[in-house]
């Protein structure tokens, strides 16, 4: 089982709506490890770097305004298949189409203000994590229950 790391952001709407704890609980309850955690203000420059594939798209100016409108919480989440499992937990991009039980499906109705970002594959995770975290900001440690909770397939 691959142990993966993925970049997760709680977006400005999650901070404005005081959902940091609720979203973090979902990740911890799932059994994943938090390898990095910080709150920061995204600048337009950082937004362009993060969303480089979207910069030329018509929705980008609105996305940049939104993502810079309040702080975000950035996390590196680690565990078995963390990238794809977090994407499943997040749900579809548009909150109106996301399944109930997913974060976007349970908390939102917007395509833009959809509460959470998660890397969409290994290449994206590899590119995105260093945008938000220096190596020395990530912690290596063992979860005491990790073996029993997560190692069994
Ligand atoms: N987005 C938007 N309008 C669109 C598509 C996307 O505002 O038509 C925003 C939305 O916040 C989304 C982000 O741009 O989460 C990145 O888009 P992507 O298609 O990568 O969706 P995600 O991977 O976040 O589900």
Automatic annotation (TrEMBL):
> What cofactor(s) does the depicted protein rely on?
Mg(2+)
Name the SMART domains on file: NDK
User: What function does this protein fulfil?
Assistant: Major role in the synthesis of nucleoside triphosphates other than ATP. The ATP gamma phosphate is transferred to the NDP beta phosphate via a ping-pong mechanism, using a phosphorylated active-site intermediate.
UniProt protein name: Nucleoside diphosphate kinase
Annotated GO CC locations: cytoplasm
Q: Which residues cross the membrane?
A: none
Q: What is the predominant subcellular site recorded for this chain?
A: cytoplasm
Q: Which GO terms describe its molecular function?
A: ATP binding; metal ion binding; nucleoside diphosphate kinase activity
Compartments, record wording: Cytoplasm
Task: Identify the catalytic residues.
Answer: 117 (pros-phosphohistidine intermediate)
**Family annotation (SUPFAM superfamilies):** Nucleoside diphosphate kinase, NDK
State the oligomer form and interacting partners.
Answer: Homotetramer.
Q: What class of enzyme is it?
A: transferase
Q: PROSITE patterns recorded for this chain? A: NDPK, NDPK_LIKE
Family listed:
Belongs to the NDK family.
* Alphabetical UniProt keywords: ATP-binding, Cytoplasm, Kinase, Magnesium, Metal-binding, Nucleotide metabolism, Nucleotide-binding, Phosphoprotein, Transferase
Q: What is its EC number?
A: 2.7.4.6
Describe the location of the Nucleoside diphosphate kinase-like domain by residue ranges: 3-140
User: Known NCBIfam families for this protein?
Assistant: PRK00668.1 (NF001908)
* Any Gene Ontology biological process: GTP biosynthetic process
């Amino acid at each position: 089982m691959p142990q993966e790391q993925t970049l997760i952001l709680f977006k400005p709407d999650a901070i404005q709506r005081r959902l940091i704890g609720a979203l973090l609980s979902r990740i911890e309850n799932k059994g994943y490890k938090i390898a990095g955690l910080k709150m920061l203000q995204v600048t337009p420059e950082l937004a362009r770097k993060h969303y480089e594939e979207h910069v030329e798209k018509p929705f980008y100016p609105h996305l940049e305004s939104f993502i810079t409108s309040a702080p975000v919480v950035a996390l590196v989440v680690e565990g078995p298949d963390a990238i794809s499992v977090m994407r499943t937990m997040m749900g579809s991009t548009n909150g109106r189409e996301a399944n109930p039980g997913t974060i976007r499906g349970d908390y939102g109705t917007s395509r833009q203000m959809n509460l959470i970002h998660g890397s969409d594959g290994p290449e994206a995770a590899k590119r995105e994590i260093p945008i938000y975290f220096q190596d020395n900001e990530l912690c290596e440690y063992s979860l005491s229950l990790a073996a029993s909770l997560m190692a069994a397939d």
